[in-house]
Amino acid sequence: MSERHVVLGxxxxxxxxxxxDLASKLTQAGLSVHTVMTEAATKLVGEASFxxxxxxxxxxxxxxxxxxxxxxxxxxxxxxxxxxxxxCTANVMAKVAHxxxxxxxxxxxxxxxxxxxIAPAMHTAMWENAxxxxxxxxxxxxxxxxxxxATGRLASGGFGAGRFSPVPEILGTVLAMLGAGGDLAGCKxxxxxxxxxxxxxxxxFLGNRSTGKMGYALxxxxxxxxxxxTLIAGATSLPAPASINVIPVESAADMLAAVKMVAEDADALxxxxxxxxxxxxxxxxxxxxxxxTDLLLxxxxxxxxxxxxxxxxIRVGFAAESENxxxxxxxxxxxxxxxxxxxNDISRSDSGFGTDDNQCTILDPSGAEEAxxxxxxxEVADRILDRITALLDKD
Length: 395
What we know:
Elements: E1 5-10, H1 18-28, E2 32-37, H2 39-42, H3 47-54, E3 58-59, H4 72-79, E4 82-88, H5 90-97, H6 104-111, E5 116-120, H7 124-128, H8 130-141, E6 145-146, E7 150-153, E8 159-163, H9 167-178, E9 188-193, E10 198-199, E11 205-206, H10 213-223, E12 228-233, E13 245-248, H11 252-262, E14 268-271, E15 278-280, E16 299-301, H12 305-308, E17 314-321, H13 325-335, E18 340-345, E19 357-358, E20 360-363, E21 369-371, E22 375-376, H14 377-394
Parallel strand pairs: 1-2, 1-4, 2-3, 4-5, 5-6, 9-12, 9-14, 12-13, 14-17, 17-18
Antiparallel strand pairs: 7-8, 10-11, 15-16, 18-20, 19-22, 20-21
Helix pairs in contact: 1-3, 1-9, 4-6, 5-8, 10-14
């Protein structure tokens, strides 16, 4: 992403202050962010904030060139890999829809050949107005993409549609659009994440410590490389990532059914979820009461998901172990006829469940072992996807 350029157009919505955080997140993602502001936007948030965050000049006027060798709006329009207008007012939406170019932002929108993404932010009545809705349809018909608006509390104190979408949702949409032509473009990848819960009664369940962070990192990394991603998510508190089809499930049986439903035409299945090996043989219909005697539970084996879907071209498993890590991982690799297995030590406090980092080893059927150092889970995800990409290229 280091060579990708996003032109961020900021218009005069009260949500303009949120665009500073958005610019920061885009910059942290490795993008070069070139900010162009309307005059109204400069009344709400300072140019210096964007300049400090992005490390690049901020453009506000047609007649104050930051690049002495180019006409400003042409320079910005040509450098853009994506033109993002966030927040976008009803006024700016109308101008872009009707080809009006009376300031630097709208001139850039008219001149660019890059994809355009709009994140609207306005009062509910303005968003629902027939003129705005007509402009929305006009822009969509021309290939302009939209993220939001969200529904929630507005600056006016009211509640309704028109709220600026959450920054992570806009960021995810940007990364998905920029990655559309990546090395996994055209591939369908199914990923499982999080832990499963096996119900004892209406209140209690058997579960595990998985948070879903590794699976979510894999899903976002695959999305950003152009893949069509379906994420089957067990128990997790993580927000649904943008531009990814998320199927929430609870039990191991639910997860198996979801995998069978969506993985039939998948190019790869990555089983990053911590799926229960055992489930209660029976589930109480009412809450189990505390008695004087011990409670004895009879557990039955759950069906192994990877063994049940053996016809997917690429199948990747995970082995979360606390001892004899590589030995147990190798056994699973062979027994389940996997293309890759990722082994990690769950006894470490700095890696595995609940952490942002992972130290793991990738094994393949040839006996090769690729030991990765302690890395952020997103970097681990890309290393795993590098191996999957190589396998898909062979096919």
